[in-house]
Amino acid sequence: MKNFKQVIEDFQKRNIVHTISNVEKLEKITNKEGIYIGFDPTATSLHLGNYTQIVNLIRLQRNGFKVFGILGGATGMIGDPSFKNSERKLLENNELELNKSKIKKQLESFNLKVIDNLDFYKDLNVIEFLRFVGKEFNVATMLSKDSVANRIQFGLSYTEFSYTLLQAYDFYQLAQKYNVAVQLGGSDQWGNLVSGLDLISRKINADFPSLAITTNLIVDENGNKFSKTTGGGSLWLDPTLTTPYQLYQFLLNQPDSMIETLVKQLVLKELDEIEVVLQKHKQDTSLKIGQKYLAYQVVSDIHGKESVDQAEKISSILFGNGLASNLNESDLEILSKNLDVFNFSSDIITTLLNSKIVQSKRELREFIANGSLEINGEKFLSEEQTINNNLYGDNYILIKKGKRNFYIVTTKNHNGN
Description:
Layout: H1 4-13, E1 17-20, E2 34-39, H2 48-62, E3 66-71, H3 75-78, H4 93-109, E4 113-116, H5 126-132, H6 139-144, H7 146-152, H8 158-161, H9 163-178, E5 180-186, H10 190-203, E6 211-215, H11 244-252, H12 256-266, H13 271-283, H14 289-303, H15 305-319, H16 329-335, E7 340-343, H17 348-354, H18 361-370, E8 373-375, E9 378-379, E10 396-401, E11 405-410, H19 412-415
Parallel strand pairs: 2-3, 2-5, 3-4, 5-6, 7-11
Antiparallel strand pairs: 1-6, 8-9, 8-10, 10-11
Helix pairs in contact: 9-10, 11-14, 11-15, 12-14, 14-15
């Protein structure tokens, strides 16, 4: 096992670390001190961007350190203004409770100890908070922080302005009750993390080994957060919102320019193994060795081996050299959540036309002549050709048009199921 300084050095080799508040304190952190990251329950699920932080806690945990996922039951009611152009809509209590319950389960699935920061505030009144916390912070200093200064021009409510005080108080409470000494967060959280250090130094003592470490945000070639889809939506960790197959495909299609960063930061394997994989990838990038390794490891760590094996199998058959006959009805059920699905009409030709999979009979004949239309894994070479309706339990038909366009036709309604 590595000591804390060695773990952080490993983080640095992976290009994870952005800023360390006090490098000299790295040697003072032992496995007696706790380390935490906060997660505000702004949705019913965490997303891939959150996972870039979770993997850091997992690495620390595997080296014997106490790690905590702090659920923002209180801070989630306020909203973090850091580097946002507008104020987030306040969540209703029932929304917040639903989000908290789901995110708590997700954090616990990674074996993290979860603490709801609402527990720190439920018996604290506003006067006590202002006397204990508010008087320790200078407004001019708070206004000078980039996370706040960048929002002033767009308008900033006092509610959001006070967010940094709550995050500081969280750190103080965790230090007092759980001996937590280190807070990790994205580079956009630096101002909030430092506020916690300031409060601890005043309220506990300056010798307490409190430390703040920010991590680099992963962005794509265009400067967008890599955890977003091309349409701007989030990639959720909840498999009912983003299926393992969708996540696998997203990672599999990352450009070569992103692979070293993503593999080093998201894959939990040791760097020695990772370097070997990256070297093989660079020898022939057309084989997508790095992308396949990234997708397999990350989806396996999030959803388990069975899910990633299924995603890999489906991807291999749809886009590789696999056979459609190797898919089963369960695979088609999963695909039906990721592909366009149409109802079966009176016959396959009518279905192709009604669904607009082909735009006209003329286009249909062109696809047939070119051999670029497949139905249930067999080339469709004639309008009179009989298809195997029973391949997927008599409920699905898999259609491939061209090289990468797949559609599912369901026969359930037609069969009266």
